[in-house]
């Protein structure tokens, strides 16, 4: 039956659903049954005529099919006649059996096996193996849906990993920064307790220690508010509306009027178009980047707005000292500071989180001409 399978495989190089495939398999099976029956009947008639009329002349094929032997009681004739009459039923059963078997093996068992193995991989947490079954039938739609589920689970796993990594960085940063105020509170309380037991606690010593404790408590309160602010960023919804892209430039012009202490230059490299974006979110990112730029710039800040396909990119460059090697790796961490005079606070952290929420990212670098460059990328919709 290999020739039948090869013929069916060639026929199924075209689009066909399962019901169409089954009909085609059965049709080919019926053709095979009819052909086998005709050949069998012809052979049986030939033998019958050879037995009864060994010297008979050749006849047409149709005369073979309509042949009726004389009523002689030869056993061989009866056997041949029995085969001739009932061969169609035997071939019919075999044809249907083989047609349905090949259909089941080719069009049912194979995709089910693929889907079972794919589901097993997904259950084990392996989302790397793509699910591909291309036959243009119902199983292809099922495999495509399962592959979409695999991709979704893979993306969710990646997001959870990134969230876990970010949360781990936040926890590490806060754990590091919480040690100093807690140690200050503990040391001053122990100092006040020791002086009190020795009856040496003067008002000046008390006020000095209490002031340090109060400042440390204020820092702890600020850290707590920061944690709440970061949590709000995760829950903040994204509202994209169709707006002219030049509204971002108009917002920058307003900011320049309120911060005249340094020269703010705006360079625009985009056409006059309308796109779908969250203006409040992008403006907040720009404000955070400008706050850091104003803090470290000497005289000039340059903002470049450019458009690449469906990505809006905003570069903020200052003429300050730029980022150190350590700052290039950790400047976006919450309350990161390489020293107490160059504290970035939450500006870059918030800008990075909001850029990612808008389908983009935040990158920091140093200019070859000196100074720092921060680029914020946002995904737009036409």
Relevant terms:
HAMP_dom, histidine kinase, nucleotide-binding, alpha+beta, about 375 residues, five-stranded mixed beta sheet, Helix Hairpins, Heat Shock Protein 90, transferase
Polypeptide structure, described:
GO terms for molecular function: kinase activity. It is an enzyme of class 2 (transferase). Residues 106-158 form the HAMP domain. Keywords: ATP-binding, Cell membrane, Kinase, Membrane, Nucleotide-binding, Phosphoprotein, Transferase, Transmembrane, Transmembrane helix, Two-component regulatory system. It is a multi-pass membrane protein. The protein has 382 residues and is α+β, with helices and mostly antiparallel strands. The chain folds into three domains: 2-126, no CATH class; 160-235, Helix Hairpins (Orthogonal Bundle); 241-379, Histidine kinase-like ATPase, C-terminal domain (Heat Shock Protein 90, 2-Layer Sandwich), CATH 3.30.565.10. Helices cover 63% and strands 13% of the residues. It contains ten helices and nine strands. Strand 6 (336-337) and strand 7 (343-345) form a beta hairpin. Helix 4 runs parallel beside helix 5 (138-197), helix 5 (138-197) packs antiparallel against helix 6 (203-235) and helix 8 (279-296) packs antiparallel against helix 10.
């Amino acid at each position: 039956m290999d020739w039948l399978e090869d013929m069916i495989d060639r026929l199924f190089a075209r689009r066909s659903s399962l019901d169409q495939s089954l009909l085609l398999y059965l049709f080919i099976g019926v053709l095979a049954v009819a052909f086998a029956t005709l050949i069998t009947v012809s052979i049986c008639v030939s033998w019958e005529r050879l037995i009864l009329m060994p010297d008979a002349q050749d006849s047409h094929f149709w005369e073979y099919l309509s042949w009726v032997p004389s009523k002689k009681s030869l056993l061989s004739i009866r056997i041949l006649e029995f085969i001739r009459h009932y061969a169609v039923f035997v071939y019919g059963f075999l044809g249907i059996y083989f047609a349905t078997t090949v259909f089941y093996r080719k069009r049912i068992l194979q995709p089910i096996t693929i889907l079972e193995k794919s589901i097993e991989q997904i259950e084990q947490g392996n989302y790397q193996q793509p699910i591909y079954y291309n036959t243009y039938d119902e199983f292809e739609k099922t495999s495509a849906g399962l592959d979409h589920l695999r991709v979704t689970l893979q993306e969710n796993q990646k997001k959870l990993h990134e969230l876990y990594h970010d949360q781990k960085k936040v926890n590490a940063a806060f754990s590091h920064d919480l040690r100093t105020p807690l140690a200050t509170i503990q040391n001053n309380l122990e100092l006040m307790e020791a002086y009190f037991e020795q009856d040496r606690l003067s008002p000046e010593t008390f006020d000095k220690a209490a002031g340090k404790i109060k400042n440390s408590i204020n820092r702890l309160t600020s850290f707590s508010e920061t944690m709440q602010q970061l949590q709000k960023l995760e829950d903040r919804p994204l509202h994209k509306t169709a707006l002219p892209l030049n509204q971002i430039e108009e917002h920058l012009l307003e900011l320049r009027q309120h911060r005249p202490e340094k020269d703010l230059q705006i360079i625009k490299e985009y056409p006059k178009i309308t796109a779908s974006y969250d203006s409040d979110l992008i403006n907040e990112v720009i404000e955070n980047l400008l706050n850091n730029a104003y803090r470290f710039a000497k005289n000039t800040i340059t903002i470049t707005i450019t458009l690449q396909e469906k990505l809006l990119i905003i570069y903020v460059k200052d003429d300050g000292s730029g980022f150190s090697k350590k700052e290039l790796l950790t400047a976006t961490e919450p309350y990161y500071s390489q020293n107490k005079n160059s504290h970035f606070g939450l500006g870059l952290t918030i800008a990075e989180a909001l850029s990612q929420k808008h389908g983009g990212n935040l990158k920091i670098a140093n200019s070859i001409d000196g100074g720092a460059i921060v680029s914020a990328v946002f995904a737009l919709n036409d």
